[in-house]
Amino acid sequence: MRKIHLKKKITKQNGFTLVETLLSTLILMLAFSVVVSGIPVAKRACENVMRGANAQVLLSTTITRLRGELGTASNIRAEGANRITYTNAETGASSRIYIENNTIKYQHYVAIEGIGKDSNAVPFISEEAGGGLKLTCKGISFENGLITVSGLSVSDVVSNRSDLSHRDTLLIRVITY
Q1: Does residue 137 belong to any structural domain of this protein?
Q2: By three-state DSSP, how is residue 44 classified?
Q3: Is 68 part of any domain?
Q4: Which residue has the higher pLDDT, 128 or 61?
Q5: Closest Cα partner for 104 from 120, 126, 88?
Q6: Which of 66, 135, 160, 170 has minimal CB crowding within 10 Å?
């Protein structure tokens, strides 16, 4: 009777065979390779969505700043094409916004000890704020209490994608007190 008991122990299987283990490892490796190969595609898609969102924020920030800067300005006058001079309502300083090479530039006039001096013109929205995005503008004009900003658009300098976000025309009604 002792021989039968030993034979049952030998034929009884616990665990997996070598073939089953290799097959499950192969299936796991295939699944892992599919997941890993999709990571660059997902990363690119995420970057594109982020660039689009950042373009929207940059355009929105520019519009908000233009409205804030020009909406309550006084002594506004057009100085030729694409150039507006005005008095800043908050500081009382004379300022100028103009378009140069499709970029909105900002300059203000500072009175230092009775001597007037033009400051260096700077981009209206700094290039660092864009993080590889570039804001362009086609024109700015002033007529009958209405400032018209035309052709605002944001392009991606890194990927050379143009017009990520745009606003054909922005109208700013000037409120004078």
Answers
A1: yes
A2: helix
A3: yes
A4: 61
A5: 126
A6: 160
pLDDT in tens, 129-172: 777 888 889 999 998 889 999 999 998 887 788 778 888 898 98
Q: How many CB atoms lie within 10 A of CB 11?
A: 6
The whole domain housing 70 covers: 38-173
| Tokens 């950042």 belong to residue | 54
**Residue located via tokens 């929207």:** 56
Q: Please state the rounded mean pLDDT for residues 106-126.
A: 66
Give the range among 29-43, 74-88, 102-116, 151-165 with minimum mean pLDDT.
Answer: 102-116
Burial 53-68 (b: 16+ CB within 10 A, else e): ebbeebbeebeeebbe
Q: How many domains does the chain have?
A: 1
CA distance 88 to 57: 25
Which residues does residue 104 pair with via DSSP β-bridges, in sequence order? 99
Flag whether 27 is in a domain: no
pLDDT at 101: 87
Q: Cα 130 from chain centroid?
A: 6
Beta bridge partner(s), residue 142: 147
Backbone CA torsion sign across 177, 89, 102, 130: negative
**In terms of DSSP bridges, do strands 94-100 and 83-87 run parallel, antiparallel, or are they unpaired?**
antiparallel
In a domain, 149, yes or no: yes
pTM value is 0.72
4, HSE (Cβ side, Cα atoms, 13 Å): 1
